[in-house]
Amino acid sequence: MIPFSPPYINEEIINEVVDSLRSGWITTGPKVKLLEEEISNFVKIPNVLCVNSWTSAAIMVLRWLGIEEGDEVIIPSYTYSATALAVIHAGGKPIMVDVGNDFNIDIKAVKKAITTKTKAIMPVDFAGFPCDYNELNELVHDGEIIAKFVASSKIQEQIGRILVISDAAHSLGAFYNNNRAAKNADFTIFSLHAVKNVTTAEGGAIAINMPSPFNNDELYKEMRMMALNCQTKDAFSKSKAGSWRYDIVGLGMKINMADINAALGLGQMRIYEDLLRSRKAIFNKYISYFSKFDWAIIPPHKENGKESSYHIFPLRIKGMEETERDKMISQISENNVAVNVHFIPMPLLTYFKDNGYDIKDHPNAYNNFKNEISLPIYPQLTEAQIETVAKTVIDAYMKIHS
Questions:
Q1: Percent of the chain with pLDDT over 70
Q2: DSSP letter string over 329-376?
Q3: What's the CATH code, domain 11-263?
Q4: Across the strands, what pairs with 165?
Q5: What is the mean pLDDT of residues 61-65?
Q6: DSSP string covering 221-232, please?
Q7: Which fold does the domain 272-401 belong to in CATH?
Q8: Would you call 398 helix, strand, or coil by DSSP?
Q9: pLDDT of residue 238
């Protein structure tokens, strides 16, 4: 069986984790700080905070913003459920809008969805390919849109406009305007989950990029405290002789990352440029196989200063319906190749259907979903395995259409 997305673990990464175990300190400490510095240097954003998941990071940012009942956050309908669930857990209402043919949020749909209750927009860089942040930032800075903005917290008053939070769960390593994607939003949140390009098994990282009058150094310190119950000292600081006393200065969360997790990500970040090159090479090999067929829709990956992180290869099959796609996946699986589908649009999921979301309002999301198959893409794939995946997919298509 060719697996879909195993983590990349080599001896150096194992040694990094073992070093953490042998150090006698496994919760938040020096490894977390080193990982934050590695990610910061990579994306060229000075302040990066690591926590225990993308979801908890998003909840914390929204709570910091002062989201309360009735406040709206605009998100794409074509994403993993965590994007919406984070909004709900923070106390807000997710407003789902449709996406374009590139899987990313439709900015025109975003504009139509903005109301006086809109407090944030959270676009998703699907499969690691950045959405149109230039257009999105122009929108939130437009005088007409600013005039519609109604602040309901002190933070919102200071911002004076809709906040942009990038759901960059897939896009660590992507480029936007020829820079690493992280400078295009007020907050950029990466996922470090087990199937991501860089993993800490479970984890997330927040790149803080707020404009004046906010001091991002101070905001990092504030959010680091928020991530640990708003406690004035973390466990590592308290462990020093005579440093036991601490205070709780607000209503925080318990979402700090542990050193043992950070060690795994630290080992990967140190070789991430090489891992990215491998992913890109595999992506391009898939293109060479599938570009010969008019039924294969090659996923967007590089255009106009944007380049993917090559997290997913979301192949679409022209003219294929959902039932045919499912048969094709079954055929592929029978030949010992694991594939996936990214994603089931949220309005098709029971919880969201029960809460009034309707897939009929998201035709592009459904059209993308019904014929999408995600192929394995990770550095450990051999030339022979890449060829096997491609030929198995092609053979499955031919059998379905024979």
A1: 99
A2: HHHHHHTTB--B-S---GGGSHHHHHTT--GGG-HHHHHHHHTEEEEP
A3: 3.40.640.10
A4: 187
A5: 99
A6: HHHHHHTBTTBS
A7: Aspartate Aminotransferase, domain 1 (3.90.1150)
A8: helix
A9: 65
Long-range contacts formed by 282-289: CB under 8 A, 24+ apart: 282/310, 282/313, 282/377, 282/378, 282/379, 282/381, 282/386, 283/308, 283/310, 283/313, 283/377, 285/386, 285/390, 286/313, 286/315, 286/375, 286/377, 286/386, 286/389, 286/390, 289/387, 289/390, 289/391, 289/394
Cβ atoms 138, 164 nearer than 8 A: no
Residue 275 · residue 379 · CB < 8 Å: yes
Rg over alpha carbons for the chain, rounded to the nearest Å, is 22
- Per residue in 116-153, pLDDT (tens digit) is 999 999 999 999 999 999 999 999 999 999 999 999 99
Structure tokens at 284: 């391009």
Report how far residue 299's alpha carbon sits from residue 372's, in angstroms, rounded to the nearest whole number: 10
Distance CA 180, CA 308 (A): 10
Which pair of tokens denotes residue 281?
Answer: 């090479």
- 149 preceded by a cis bond (ω within 30 of 0): no
Q: Which residue has the tokens 């035709």?
A: 363
The pLDDT assigned to 49 comes to: 99
Amino acid at 52: N
Give the per-residue pLDDT at 240.
72
Contact (Cβ atoms closer than 8 angstroms) between residue 223 and residue 16 = no
Question: Any idea what DSSP says for residue 300?
Answer: P
Over range 49-58, report the average pLDDT: 99
Question: Which residue reads 């069986």 in tokens?
Answer: 1
Are the C-beta atoms of 42 and 265 separated by less than 8 Å?
no
- Phi/psi of residue 291, nearest 5 degrees: -65, -10
Residue 372, CA distances (Å) to 79, 343, 362, 381 in order: 13, 9, 16, 21
SS3 call for 388: helix
What is the amino acid identity at position 44? K
Contact residues for 388 (Cβ-Cβ < 8 A; gap 6+): 2, 337
Instruction: Count how many residues are written for the chain.
Output: 402
Task: Give me the residue spans of the domains in the chain.
Answer: 11-263, 272-401
How far does the chain reach from its first CA to its final CA, in angstroms? 26
